[in-house]
């Protein structure tokens, strides 16, 4: 279980004066500036949960992930993963953590992924049979049996992400941190990755924390959503609990069939009933209310906290 208590983190940077004179002056009188990246965060993450962590740019998501993976240590408060403190980087904890950054790869460009995987097997001291069994399981689930033997530079982006996912899970970590895992991937590859992550979470009870700006990732995976804004948690609950603001001048979008051809109409609440009465049930494809889809609700939250 992950327990975060009263966690704050401040970055310290120094104002940089321009020109040679400024650079020399800076050597003697540096003016510090403090950026409060996280402010008094409290969060408990149960084992086996699938959490979506979102927020506008600069909200503090990467900082939180860095604190959870022990890259930086808190300015105040605490982070505990089971009985460990991430910043102490104990080998026992590192073996329980897997990380994937969609924009950065841990693979070597000129080598096939299997070489990196063999190296990871030796870093994590994986017993040979266990390694082979896990590799077979992961490559089968991701349909990547052939991919791991090709040089990484010959793989497409989606194929490379699949190989990176195998690397981050080969040691069967208890916790998996994913940062923008579907960046630049087509819809079908996104779906196969969602299916894989849901299966991995179900089968191995892997706790998955996914940071993404892609709302589809959140819709497809997150059992619980945490929204960070300006370094604070502004929402922490199930997706269904997101606040829906139904304004009085709302409009509906009706998609329907006319002679088997799809059409759509944007209609006010007052005219909706009358219009629906002109259609038969099997003509109606869908009826949605403007402002009620997940993206719009989240956008409203972002706008309010700006
Ligand atoms: N190395 C650093 N030095 C100083 N300030 C930093 C540093 N890294 C991040 N910050 C600041 O800390 C705040 C939080 O940044 P962070 O990278 O955690 O946000 P984020 O939610 O991950 O954003 P994004 O969605 O753009 O990746 C921002 O105001 C950012 O400018």
From TrEMBL:
InterPro entries, per database record: AAA+_ATPase (IPR003593), ABC_transporter-like_ATP-bd (IPR003439), ABC_transporter_ATP-binding (IPR050763), P-loop_NTPase (IPR027417)
Transmembrane segments: none
GO molecular function, one term: ATP hydrolysis activity
Keyword annotations: ATP-binding, Nucleotide-binding, Transport
Limits of the ABC transporter domain: 22-255
Source taxon at top rank: Bacteria
Pfam families in alphabetical order: ABC_tran
Protein name, UniProt field: ABC transporter, ATP-binding protein
Organism: Lactobacillus iners DSM 13335
């Amino acid at each position: 279980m992950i327990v975060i208590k009263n966690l704050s983190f401040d970055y310290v940077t120094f104002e940089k004066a321009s020109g040679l004179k400024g650079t020399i002056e800076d050597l003697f009188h540096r003016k510090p500036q403090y950026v409060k990246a996280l402010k008094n965060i409290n969060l408990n993450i149960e084992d086996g949960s699938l959490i979506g962590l979102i927020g506008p740019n600069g909200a503090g998501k990467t900082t939180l992930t860095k604190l959870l993976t022990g890259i930086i240590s808190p300015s105040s408060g605490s982070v505990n993963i089971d009985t460990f403190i991430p910043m102490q980087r104990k080998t026992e904890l590192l073996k329980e953590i897997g990380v994937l950054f969609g924009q950065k790869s841990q693979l070597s460009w000129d080598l096939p992924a299997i070489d990196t995987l063999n190296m990871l097997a030796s870093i994590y001291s994986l017993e040979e049979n266990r390694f082979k069994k896990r590799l077979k399981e992961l490559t089968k689930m991701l349909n990547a049996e052939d991919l791991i033997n090709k040089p990484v530079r010959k793989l497409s982006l989606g194929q490379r992400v699949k190989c990176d996912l195998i690397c981050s899970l080969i040691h069967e970590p208890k916790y998996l941190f994913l940062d923008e895992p579907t960046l630049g991937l087509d819809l079908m590859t996104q779906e196969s990755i969602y299916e894989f992550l849901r299966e991995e979470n179900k089968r191995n009870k892997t706790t998955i924390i996914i940071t993404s700006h892609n709302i589809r990732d959140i819709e497809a995976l997150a059992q619980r959503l945490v929204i960070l804004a300006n370094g604070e948690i502004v929402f922490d609950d199930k997706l269904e609990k997101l606040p829906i603001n139904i304004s009085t001048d709302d409009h509906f979008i009706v998609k329907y069939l006319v002679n088997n051809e799809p059409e759509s109409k944007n209609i006010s609440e007052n005219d909706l009933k009358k219009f629906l009465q002109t259609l038969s049930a099997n003509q109606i494809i869908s009826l949605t209310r403007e402002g009620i889809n997940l993206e719009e609700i989240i956008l409203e939250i972002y706008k309010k906290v700006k």
